Amino acid sequence: MITHAGHRRVPARGARTSGERRADRAARHAFRSRRVRIGTLAALMLTAASVIAAIDVLSALVGSSLHVVAYRELLDVRWDGWEVRAISGGLVLVGLVFLLAGLLPGRSRVVPLHGRVPDVVMGVSRRGLCRAIAAAAEDATGVARVRRVRLRPRRVTVVAETPVRNPDGLEDGVAEAVRACLERIRPLRVRTVKVRMRHKEA
């Protein structure tokens, strides 16, 4: 069962103040993924290449080049060989990975929330939001235990257990409880809710 959930109360056009809109943008910017790991890897690779080039240049200036990179041997390389093509393809692939990492949004550990003033940004951890959703779902009628809550950018999936042999209709109550929870917490992104009920003997 899938139902629309999230911040349901859609304000009329212009109802939100400019300060609230700036607060939302500030929260989205503050809690976006920084791509720390891949950024660190790119920085290390560029640093290593810069150090090697600096060693060669400085050693050549003092009259005894260390030849960290064998430039003369590169002149004898067959540039149409498979080794060169493989290395070039690998470098292109690495470059595309870095480019996509810079353009595409990453997965943040914090979910930004609606705010009122730009100077105060609010967020909740993904784990904390999942726990709140699970607690709300467990309070719904007929739910014995929540087995899993999966939080995605546009959907929340809740898998719950029930002692009821015919759980038809229970999904609506669970979805309503999750929707009410999301409306209280007020995350920036609106999400749909998918509920799956599993029968389990009491």
UniProtKB/TrEMBL annotation:
<feature type="region of interest" description="Disordered">
    <location>
        <begin position="1"/>
        <end position="28"/>
    </location>
</feature>
<feature type="transmembrane region" description="Helical">
    <location>
        <begin position="82"/>
        <end position="104"/>
    </location>
</feature>
<keyword id="KW-1133">Transmembrane helix</keyword>
<feature type="domain" description="DUF6286">
    <location>
        <begin position="93"/>
        <end position="198"/>
    </location>
</feature>
<dbReference type="InterPro" id="IPR046253">
    <property type="entry name" value="DUF6286"/>
</dbReference>
<feature type="compositionally biased region" description="Basic residues">
    <location>
        <begin position="1"/>
        <end position="11"/>
    </location>
</feature>
<feature type="transmembrane region" description="Helical">
    <location>
        <begin position="38"/>
        <end position="62"/>
    </location>
</feature>
<keyword id="KW-0472">Membrane</keyword>
<keyword id="KW-0812">Transmembrane</keyword>
<dbReference type="Pfam" id="PF19803">
    <property type="entry name" value="DUF6286"/>
</dbReference>
<protein>
    <recommendedName>
        <fullName>DUF6286 domain-containing protein</fullName>
    </recommendedName>
</protein>
<feature type="compositionally biased region" description="Basic and acidic residues">
    <location>
        <begin position="18"/>
        <end position="27"/>
    </location>
</feature>
